[in-house]
Amino acid sequence: MSVIDVFHAPRDFTFSDFDTRDVSLSDGDTVMLRFPRLDASTVRALADSVRRHREETLARYSTDRIVNAIAQAVELWTDPSYSERRLAEHLIPAITGYDASMVRIELKRYMRMFRRRELLRFVDDELDCPQMLDEYRPNRSGGYTRLYGPELSFHVFSSNVPGIPVWSMTMSLLTKSSILGKSSFDEPLMPVLFARSLASVDSDMADALAIVPWHGGTADLEDAAIGEADAVIAYGSSHTTEAIRPRVRAGKPFLSYGAKIGFALIGHEALRADLYADTVHRMAIDVATYDQQSCLAPQTMFVERGGAVPPAHVAELLACELESQQRKYPRSTPSEEESLAIQRLRSAVQMKALMLGAGPLAGACESDDDSMASDDPFVIQSRSDTDWTVLYYPSVGMADSLSTPLNRTINVVAVDHVEDALPVLRPYTQWLQTCGVALEPDRLFAVAQRVGAMSIDRICPLGEMNRAKSGWHHDGGFNLLDLVHAVDIERNTDVYCDGFDMDVE
């Protein structure tokens, strides 16, 4: 049986005891995941170790050197034969339940976001002068400014989307922060593999990182890590992030990324006779990718009337596309609670349709044109189990909720104009994040102007909702600026100090 260590620590740090967990693979083999047993003193010792290594190496690196090291580590992942990539492609599907082909494709696409040119764009987008992370540089007021990142950042990684920890780790490294990362037992591998990639490029820099898994809610370990850290970055459910918030003292940066709701606005122009098939295919990609577990994924799609196909027909076509996606990339197995939630939602919409005198649909791609012509709510669902579900509503008033139980469960809501969706979105503003659009250019900015006022932070093409670009403002904030603090040498301070130069008259 192969033994895989799902932790990373500085080279001079040793753990005294370990636990293991077996994972069964699709080929019948079993691997053993090994991880250290932890107590609060071990967590504090890890924090001390990575902080010391940061002071010796990372804090003295130039921003360019850090960018180049990350880029070199990421470049390794472009090689299909790279050992860490092959391990990720082999084990992550077995650990998470995601389809192996989907993991392979999405991981490759995701890692490309951290190539050197993307990292430079990422840094330049937020910092007028990235060299301020290295030294005092002239500012617009006539003085000088230096930006300082946290000595130690504590990261709580989520398990819903493989690869997300890479973003979080990169963000901290660019601010020259050491990292203490808590990984999830539901996906403990990816942050460790990325740390190993960094170690193969710059082992001294990788000594400023520690990644260890423990069960969420282990208060003594979390309190030790939070107490040691100068900044806390937490991903996960809203329950997870809100449980951490009150334990972070005032004044300490706390970046929390909890559950969010994505939605799409599809204009009639995207449903022309020559375009609707591609539009529906893109809708299905956004729903199927990682089974909507990403906070970027759509839960409701608003489809405008007036196209070559009516919204009800779009719902039917989407059902067919989701069936195709299921054959290509089978959905992961949901929990019993998630399955029951999907069944309850299906039943509720079917009951609503019956009360209105409509005949609810069941089964993929089995309806006829007459049933699609009626403008009543209906359900189209996978032939077996809860693999996917399309819930159609003929008006925004019919939809009981814009959120769904995920796992490829999507609301399709018909509107006369995409702007009609905005009032119904307003009660959800604190949870809204990504808006996918399929609109002509003349409408894009007018709609974006109104949507942007509703606390969303990202507008993107339909079909790319799960694929945020480098430099985007996660939850409307900044990735680097929210972590650093600025120190200014005020105007004329240097001139005043010149007066103490004995060689100057």
Structural summary, described in words:
This protein is an alpha/beta fold and 505 residues long. Helix content is 38%, strand content 19%. It has a seven-stranded mixed sheet with strand order 13-14-15-12-11-16-17, with helices on both faces. Strands 8-7-6-9-10 form a five-stranded parallel sheet, sandwiched between helices. A three-stranded mixed sheet has the order 1-3-2. A hairpin with a 5-residue loop joins β2 and β3. The longest helix is centred in the last third of the chain and has 20 residues.
Sheet/helix structural class? alpha/beta
Cα distance spanning the termini:
78 Å
Mean of residue pLDDT?
93
Query: So what's the overall shape?
Result: globular
Strand order of the largest sheet: 13-14-15-12-11-16-17
Q: State the helical fraction.
A: 25-40%
The biggest sheet, with number of strands, parallel, antiparallel or mixed sense and barrel status, is: 7 strands, mixed
Which terms summarize this structure?
505 residues; 19% strand; alpha/beta; five-stranded parallel beta sheet; globular
Write the layout of secondary structure elements.
Blueprint: E1 2-5, E2 18-24, E3 30-36, H1 40-56, H2 63-76, H3 83-96, H4 100-111, H5 116-126, E4 137-138, E5 144-148, E6 152-156, H6 164-174, E7 178-183, H7 190-201, H8 203-206, E8 209-213, H9 219-228, E9 231-235, H10 238-244, E10 254-257, E11 261-266, H11 276-288, E12 298-304, H12 311-328, H13 336-355, H14 369-373, E13 378-381, E14 389-393, E15 409-415, H15 421-425, E16 432-438, H16 441-451, E17 458-461, E18 485-489, H17 493-498
Parallel strand pairs: 1-3, 6-7, 6-9, 7-8, 9-10, 11-12, 11-16, 12-15, 14-15, 16-17
Antiparallel strand pairs: 2-3, 4-5, 5-18, 13-14
Helix pairs in contact: 1-9, 2-7, 3-4, 3-7, 11-12
